[in-house]
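ok so I'm stuck.
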Amino acid sequence: MPDATEIGGPSVPIVSIADGRAVVRLNRPAAHNRLEPADLMELHEIFVRVDADPSIRALIVTGTGPSFSSGFHLGALADRQAAGPEGGDRDAFAHTVDRLERLRVPTIAALNGGVYGGATDLALACDFRIGVEGMLMHMPAARLGIVYYASGLRRYVTRLGIAATKKLFLGAQPIDADEMLRIGYLDEVVAPEHLMTRAVALATTLAANAPLAVAGLKQAIDGIAAGTLDLEALGAVRARCAASEDHAEALKAWGERRIPVFHGR
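replied:
not stuck anymore, here's the structure
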């Protein structure tokens, strides 16, 4: 995926790449960026391409219009339910969000407006979340008669805690930006006009660090949170980073009192 490119079109997620950053923009504003089955396939492919491109060191997910996303299309969910076993991958949403969580690069959800249903988990799968003043989030699973998939529940519990998770899922009531910040759903709240400036600044900071170390640290931290840390794999990553050109460059730059230049090797 070369720099300064844009992939996508009307109603499908748009990807732009520049300066080592990929920006994925949900692009169905008339429907509050509702996610259709085709969008899940497109997002999954985007995440695969990002992982395969070493020039990309950070990813931002945002939306077009007044909402970040209204979540998965309930009409498509009903159609899938009616179709029974022939209705396609019932776990497609979970698989897409899980793939986002596993990205090697640090990820930022730039929440330009309300976030609802499954989109709340899409944002939780990112490493950082920046929201805007006046926004709301709503997890209506209990009102829709839905028991959520395991990985989504795990993200809620490990990132927000049991009490907040029960309040959001069992109460099924919306909360505002201040409460989102208080429970740790948001890392920051900014004025709408400053959202992308702040997200790009954070992405630039993250992208300036050693890519191998960033990927290894992210994987280890997520593994600890999920209770799945592989100590042998962690040891191999630590050894690889210690022997890397980037580590040597960092030590050299420290001695020379300059900013290191990393190449992911």
